[in-house]
Amino acid sequence: MNRINELFKRKQNGILNVYCTAGYPQLNSTVPVMEALQESGVDMIELGMPYSDPLADGPVIQASSSKALANGMTIARLFEQLRDFRKQVYVPVILMGYMNPVLQYGFEKFCQHAADAPVDGLILPDLPEYEFETEYGPIMQRYGLDFIFLVTPETSEERIRRLDSLSTGFLYAVSSSSTTGKDKDMNAVDNYLQRLQKMQLKNPVLVGFGIKDKPTFQQACSHANGAIIGTAFIKALENTPDVEGTIKKFITDIKS
Amino acid sequence: MTTTTTYQQPNAQGYYGKFGGAFIPEMLHRNVEELRSKYLDIIYDAAFQKEFRSLLHDYAGRPTPLYFAQRLSKQYGTNIYLKREDLCHTGAHKVNNTIGQILLAERLGKKRIIAETGAGQHGVATATVCALKGVECIVYMGEKDIERQAPNVARMKMLGATVIPATSGSKTLKDATNEAIRDWINNPVDTHYIIGSVVGPHPYPDMVARFQSVISEEIRWQLKEKTGSELPTHVLACVGGGSNAAGAFYHFLEEPTVQLVAIEAAGNGVHSGLSAATTQLGKPGVLHGSKSLVMQTEDGQVVEPHSISAGLDYPGIGPLHAHLFDSRRGAFLSATDEQALEAAFNLAKKEGIIPALESSHALASLEFLQPESPKPSEAPVPANAKFTKDSTVVVCLSGRGDKDMATYMKAMNIQ
Ligand SMILES: Cc1ncc(COP(=O)(O)O)c(C=O)c1O
C-alpha cells in the first residue's frame, strides 16, 4: 500500500497538506523545507515544480516560481535533490506542476524518475481527462503514481463523479473558482463541501485555495478530510532569515 | 484520435493532427465546455449569420478590396494582389473575429468581456465591439507593449475599455494572455474571453478561424472576377498566433494546388537568440491551453521571444499552423526586423500604402520567393513554393501602419 492510502487509513480528519515550491527560497532548500514541515507535523506535502507560465496560480506562488527558476531550479535538478530524500522524509509527497515542462522532460521518463525518488502522486492541473485516459494515465499507473484531479464549485455532479472515479489517492476540491491565493467566502465554501460530502465519493477530499490560517483550516476540515495550504505558507517564507523557525511557527499556529 | 481531421476541421477533441486539444485547469472547464458544446449551433444559426454578415458589411466595411499591386508586381516579376484587411474598421483583420465573438458572448448571456492584446489591434477591435454593444471591456496588455504601442492604448481607453498592464514574465503578449486566462478563472460565470488569434484551448482555434475565414471567402470570388479563376497559386500571410493566416488560407486549405506560405518574425535573425520564429525554434509543448509548437528551454520553460512587431512577438503558434508545418502543407518562412522594415518602406513608396509591421513580414518574404532570390532566406524555401511570372500571389495585408509610426519614424531618424 502506498503512503497516501496508508495515511488516509490511519487518519480521516484534519489532514494538513502544505504546498511548497521546489528550489524556494533557496535552490537547495527543497528537502530541508520538507523535513521542517514533517518535523512540525504536516501530514502530506505538495511539492510544486516551478514553471514560467503557471496559469492556475496567483501572484504569490508565481513569484516563488520565478524565484526558484532564477535560483536555477529544473526538473532534472529536482530529481537529483530527491535522491535519497526518503532517508529523512517519510510523509506522502505529491509533485504538482504544469504539462509543458513534464512533456519536455519526457512524460514516461518523468514518471519513472518520480517513482524512483519515490514520490507518491502527481497533480497536473492542465492535463485534461481525455488525454489522461487515452495517453498519460496508463503510464502513471504503470509506475504506481496516484493522479489527483481537481473539482470546483462549478463542476457538475456528474462530472465530479467521473473525476472521482479517475482519481487515485484523493480528490482535490478547489474551494471556489479562482487562481491560488484569493480570500474566500467561507460560508459558500461550506455549502459546497457539504454537497461533496453528501455525494459519498470514492476518494478522500482535501480542500485547497484560500486556506490560510487556523480558522479557515478548521472550517475546511469540518466537511472534508483535510486541507491544503499554499500561498499563505509561501508568503510566510518570503524574506525570512530563519526558514526552519518560520515553518515551525506557521504550522504550530494552524495545528494548535 | 477518434475522427479523421481535415486541415479545415479539427477532430472532436480539437486536434489538427498531433496538435490542439484543451489543456486547461478544471476551473476553466465549465466555460470552455459551454463554448465547445454551443459554438457551432450559435454561429450557424440564421439570425446570427444575418447579424454577423451585416455588421461585417455596414460596420467593418467588408468586403475589403483585393487590389492588384501593379508596381510591386513589376518589381518582383509576378502578379501580386493585396488583400486589404488594413482597410477594415479599426485598421486590421482582428475586427472580423471580435464581431463574431461579441455576438456569441451576447447569446451566451455574458456581461463582461476580457481580452489580451500584443500590438493593441485586437484590444482596440475588442474595445470597439464592446462599445458597440455597451458591454464592460477589460484588456490585458504587456507592460512593454503598452510602451511601444501607445496610440492603441489611448484608442482603447477612448473606447471605454480598462487596460490592465501585465507585469509578469516577459511583459508581452504571452503574459497578457496568462493574465486574461487568470481573470477568466476568477470570474467563472459572467465573463467571456475574446481570444485574439487561433490559439487557446479547443474550440477557440477553430472558432476564430471560422470568423476569419471571411478573408479567403472573399478572395475566391474577387479573384474569379479579376482573373477568371478562384484559385491563386500562392497565399502569403504573417503568423503571430496565426489568425490572419488562418483566415486567408481557410478556403484554400483543401486545394492542393494553392501554395500556402506563412511568415514568422525572425527578430534579429532566427538563431540570434532574439527571435519569434516558432516553427524554426519551437518544440512540441503546451501553451495557453493547446498542444502546439512552443519556444522553450531544455527544461520546458517558455522563452521570451523577440520581434520588432508586437503582434508577432509570441513564443507559440496556433495548432492548425503547427499541423500545416508538420505535414508540410504550408511553407514556413521568416523575415527579420530589418527585412520587415525595408518591406514596409518599399510598399509605402511603390504603392502608397503604409502597412503594419506585422504585415510587412509577409511582404518581406516576396524577396525569398522570387525564382532567383538575391537574398537567401534563413528558413529553407521549398522549390515549389517559388513563384514565376505567371503566378497569382495573394498577400494578406493584415493591418495598416498608423500604430507603428513611432517605429517607422525612428527608422527614418525623425524624432
Ligand atoms: C496587423 C496585424 N497583423 C497580424 C497580427 C498577428 O496576429 P495573427 O497571427 O493572429 O494574425 C496582428 C496582431 O496583433 C496584427 O495587429
From TrEMBL, chain A:
UniProt keywords, alphabetically: Amino-acid biosynthesis, Aromatic amino acid biosynthesis, Lyase, Tryptophan biosynthesis
EC number: 4.2.1.20
Active-site residues (renumbered): 46 (proton acceptor), 57 (proton acceptor)
Keyword ATP-binding part of the UniProt annotation: no
UniProt xrefs under InterPro entries: Aldolase_TIM, RibuloseP-bd_barrel, Trp_synthase_alpha_AS, Trp_synthase_suA
Taxonomy, superkingdom: Bacteria
One annotated Gene Ontology cellular component of this protein: cytosol
A GO molecular function held by the record: tryptophan synthase activity
Catalysed reactions, as listed in the record: (1S,2R)-1-C-(indol-3-yl)glycerol 3-phosphate + L-serine = D-glyceraldehyde 3-phosphate + L-tryptophan + H2O
Associated pathway: Amino-acid biosynthesis; L-tryptophan biosynthesis; L-tryptophan from chorismate: step 5/5
PROSITE patterns in the cross-refs: TRP_SYNTHASE_ALPHA (PS00167)
Alphabetical list of NCBIfam families matching this protein: trpA
PANTHER family: TRYPTOPHAN SYNTHASE ALPHA CHAIN, CHLOROPLASTIC (PTHR43406:SF1), TRYPTOPHAN SYNTHASE, ALPHA CHAIN (PTHR43406)
Subunit structure and binding partners: Tetramer of two alpha and two beta chains.
Biological role: The alpha subunit is responsible for the aldol cleavage of indoleglycerol phosphate to indole and glyceraldehyde 3-phosphate.
Family of the protein in this entry: Belongs to the TrpA family.
Protein name, entry field: Tryptophan synthase alpha chain
Gene: trpA
TrEMBL record, chain B:
Tryptophan synthase beta chain-like PALP domain span: 60-371
Pfam families per record: PALP (PF00291)
GO cellular component, one term: cytoplasm
GO MF terms, alphabetically ordered: tryptophan synthase activity
EC number(s) on file: 4.2.1.20
Biochemical pathway: Amino-acid biosynthesis; L-tryptophan biosynthesis; L-tryptophan from chorismate: step 5/5
Signal peptide residues on this chain, from the entry's feature table: none
Listed cofactors: pyridoxal 5'-phosphate
Modified positions (N6-(pyridoxal phosphate)lysine) in chain numbering: 94
Top EC group: lyase
InterPro entries attached to this UniProt entry: Trp_synth_b_CS, Trp_synth_beta, Trp_synth_beta/beta-like, TrpB-like_PALP, TrpB-like_PALP_sf
Subunit: Tetramer of two alpha and two beta chains.
Function text: The beta subunit is responsible for the synthesis of L-tryptophan from indole and L-serine.
Family in the record: Belongs to the TrpB family.
Name the UniProt record assigns to this protein: Tryptophan synthase beta chain
Organism expressing this protein natively: Niastella populi
Lineage per the UniProt record: Bacteria, Pseudomonadati, Bacteroidota, Chitinophagia, Chitinophagales
